[in-house]
Structures are given as structure tokens and as C-alpha cells.
């Protein structure tokens, strides 16, 4: 199973321990930021790649 397939399965099973941990960490990080913040990269890379997202060289 590839990495993107693994992420897709994790997203589907929201009650899994790994997904709950990731969501908790992500919520904590978002609360530490200012009110308006643009994400530097997609939070769901598997879905972003399916929709045509490609990382640009030199941007972060």
C-alpha cells in the first residue's frame, strides 16, 4: 500500500488512533496561529494530488 493510499484510508477511518492524534495536533497548531492564516501546503496531500496539486520547487 502506497503512502497516498494509506493517508486515504486514515482519512476515511476518523476514529482511528492515528487520525485522532493528527487532528488533535493540527487543532492545537491552528489555535496557536493568528486569526487569519494561509496553510503553506495542503492538509490532505492525497486529495490535493488527485485534484491536480503539484508542489512548486523553491516555495515552502
Keywords:
RNA binding; single chain; mainly alpha; ribosomal protein; 0% strand; 60 residues; structural constituent of ribosome; flat; Ribosomal_uL23/eL15/eS24_sf
Task: Kindly describe this structure.
Residues 39-60 are annotated as: Disordered. GO terms for molecular function: RNA binding; structural constituent of ribosome. Belongs to the eukaryotic ribosomal protein eL15 family. Component of the large ribosomal subunit. It comes from Stegastes partitus. By secondary structure, the protein is mainly α. It has one domain. The chain is 53% helix and 0% strand. It has 3 helices and no strands. The protein has helices spanning 3-12, 17-32, 45-50. The protein starts with a helix and ends in a 10-residue tail after the last helix. The relative contact order is 0.15. The mean pLDDT is 82.
Lay out the secondary structure.
Elements lengths: L2 H10 L4 H16 L12 H6 L10
Envelope shape: flat
Mean pLDDT: 82
Structural class, please?
mainly alpha
End-to-end distance: 28 Å
Total number of distinct structural domains = 1
State the order of secondary-structure elements, H for helix, E for strand: HHH
The proportion of residues in beta strands is under 5%
Instruction: Give start-end ranges of low-pLDDT stretches.
Output: none
Reported for the largest beta sheet, the result is: none
Number of helices: 3
Helical residue percent band: 40-55%
* Rg calc: 13 Å
Could you tell me the number of beta strands?
A: 0
Region (Disordered): 39-60
Organism: Stegastes partitus
Function: Component of the large ribosomal subunit. The ribosome is a large ribonucleoprotein complex responsible for the synthesis of proteins in the cell.
Subunit structure: Component of the large ribosomal subunit.
Amino acid at each position: 500500500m502506497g503512502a497516498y493510499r494509506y493517508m486515504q484510508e486514515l482519512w476515511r477511518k476518523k476514529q482511528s488512533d492515528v487520525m485522532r492524534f493528527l487532528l488533535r495536533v493540527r487543532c492545537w497548531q491552528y489555535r496557536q496561529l493568528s486569526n487569519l492564516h494561509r496553510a503553506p501546503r495542503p492538509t490532505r496531500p492525497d486529495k490535493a494530488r488527485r485534484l491536480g496539486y503539484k508542489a512548486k520547487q523553491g516555495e515552502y
